[in-house]
Write a structure and sequence with these properties.
Elements lengths: L2 E7 L6 H7 L1 E4 L2 E4 L2 E4 L6 H12 L5 E3 L3 H13 L2 E7 L7 H15 L5 E5 L4 H15 L6 H11 L3 E6 L4 H6 L2 E2 L2 H4 L5 E7 L5 E8 L1 H15 L7 E6 L4 H14 L4 E6 L2 H7 L4 E6 L9
Parallel strand pairs: 1-2, 1-6, 6-7, 9-11, 12-13
Antiparallel strand pairs: 3-4, 3-5, 8-10, 8-14, 10-11, 12-14
């Protein structure tokens, strides 16, 4: 049986340490700023993080692209040539066309390499929700006793159990990027109202409810995960933030520890692709629970 390689993309927000720990690689999307296209690298420094989010705070707009054909061609061929079958877990198709592009390239490569299998999975998630599924796939494949087909089937069976809750200062960035569904007038940006964003069962980023004030919004996303998570003592809870202050991150982590008795907590940055859409000072929290049933459409 051929070895299995797990791939994801820049939307997964897995940092270098996690990818090395679980032997995961990723296909790079691109950011575009002032006409210059750059790879959306997840191995970015705190200085890189501050620079991007400060540009957005100053009113600058950063555009993004899906994974280019050339990138898929290069990374798929690399691992097929090394004797791997591939399971690529990509950003929700509601937010990026990368999975469809990957499937087209995978078909071309498999036609030339009939012994190879490449599976391209719509994670129905983005950010660390997508990254969590890549980690679960890597853990499932780690024994070397599972085929790529079995890994593919396993991830499809659990992808709707990822619960993602986020809060942002404003919906402006998400609306501008076309990444959020929901009645904008209901949420607005007035009088300190903070929107709560979730990933719905179809992979949409959906404006779900609202909270009055920053602290209440942070408490609300923790409470939402607390209500939906299953067996937290066996889980890692994944927290991402968009260049929030160290003090605020610590306070948020302490709140999670107090409310949810989880196995461990991972804290990382919301990466350049998701960050360009969600904007600075956002928080997101993820865990596994019951199957997500909420749908915005």
């Amino acid at each position: 049986m051929r070895k299995v390689k797990i791939l994801t993309d820049s939307c997964s927000d897995l940092n270098k340490d996690l990818m090395e720990k679980y032997d995961i690689d990723y296909a790079k999307m691109n950011t575009v700023y002032e006409g210059v296209t750059s790879p959306a690298n997840l191995d970015w420094t705190p200085e890189d993080v501050h620079k991007m989010y400060n540009l957005m705070r100053d009113g600058k707009r950063i555009l993004t692209t899906q994974v280019p054909v050339e990138e898929f061609t290069t990374i798929f061929n690399k691992y097929v040539d090394e004797g791997f079958d591939i399971v690529y877990i990509g950003c929700s198709l509601k937010q990026s066309g990368s999975v469809n592009t990957g499937a087209v390239i995978a078909k071309q490569i498999m036609a030339k390499n009939p012994e190879a299998k490449i599976f391209c999975i719509d994670s129905l998630n983005a950010c660390l929700g997508e990254g969590m599924l890549a980690i679960e796939a890597a853990k499932y494949a780690a024994s070397g006793e599972k085929s790529a087909q079995e890994v593919n089937d396993y991830i499809i069976s659990i992808r709707k159990t990822v619960h993602e809750y986020a809060t942002v200062h404003t919906l402006d960035y998400l609306k501008r990027a076309g990444r959020v569904k929901g009645p904008a007038a209901f949420f607005g940006n007035l009088m300190g109202v903070k929107p709560i964003i979730i990933a719905d069962k179809n992979g949409n980023q959906a404006a779900f409810k609202k909270a009055k004030g920053r602290q209440n919004s942070l408490k609300e996303i923790v409470n939402l995960l607390k209500e939906s998570i299953i067996k937290p003592e066996e889980q890692t809870i994944y927290i991402g933030h968009a260049d929030c202050s160290e003090e605020e991150v610590k306070t948020f982590v302490d709140l999670v520890k107090k409310e949810i008795p989880c196995k461990e907590i991972f804290v990382g940055y919301i990466g350049p692709i998701i960050g360009a859409s969600i904007g600075p000072d956002a928080f997101v929290i993820n865990g596994f629970g019951d199957e997500v049933t909420f749908a915005i459409d």
